[in-house]
Write the structure tokens for this entry.
Amino acid sequence: MPRAIWKGSIAFGLVNIPVELHTAVRDSRPHFRMLHAEDKSPIRFERVCAREGKPVAWEDLVKGYEYEKGRFVILTKDDFKAAALEKSRTVDIRNFVKGDEIDDRFFETSYYLTPQKGGERAYALLREAVRETGLVGIATIVLRDAQHLAALEVKGDAMVLTMMRYAEELVDTGELTFPKATNVRKPELQMAKTLVEQFADKWDPTQYTDEYRANLMKIIKAKMKGKTVELHETVEPQSAEVVDLMERLRQSLQGTSGRGARKTSSSRAKKKTAAHAKRKRAA
């Protein structure tokens, strides 16, 4: 089992469930190092004092809050610990809410919660209660010297804890300008709705791949062998502002209709081939 990044407990009323926190997502994109172009040697970054111009050792660093230009308040480790009032290692469930009431912008990184030894039965009990009610637990947790808001949900046999943003972290839409719906014409809207409906499908995350990562890996592998690889550039769609919107919608609909017909034709061909092979085996 992967190493836990945090150990504590879920506080649920008077019930305390010992749990561990494990990473639920991973960064699959290739990572790069900065090199000196002349001799391909890795570059080492140093922590340099702005006043003295000399490198500073890790043990000589402190954290400061700049309250005005060039003036700082220094905070110690004890200050950070004191700020984390709820520093007992608990996922403190505050309440349960309906999941569809939570704006998706609040969600950040997800983690798996697994039971520690002796907490399996209580873990399963809470998991099934959350599953059957269909609610989401809203909790707080102190992780890496900071308090986080978090959502507790059930996915299969796992309880998943997703870190959330606080309300003050979301940018108010009132600060931005968005077009009104008054300029939308009904024929355009109907055609756009038809186009949306033609793209309707079931959610299947496996059908979406990181093409940028795949292309990077193709280039990297080719360079490792001293070769080059040709990638086909995607043609950017023309802005709807400089063409007739209705005409562009019509073209889009024709394109999706053709794609649907090709998919149907391909599906029929596969079924026909399979049926032929089945008859041949039977003979």
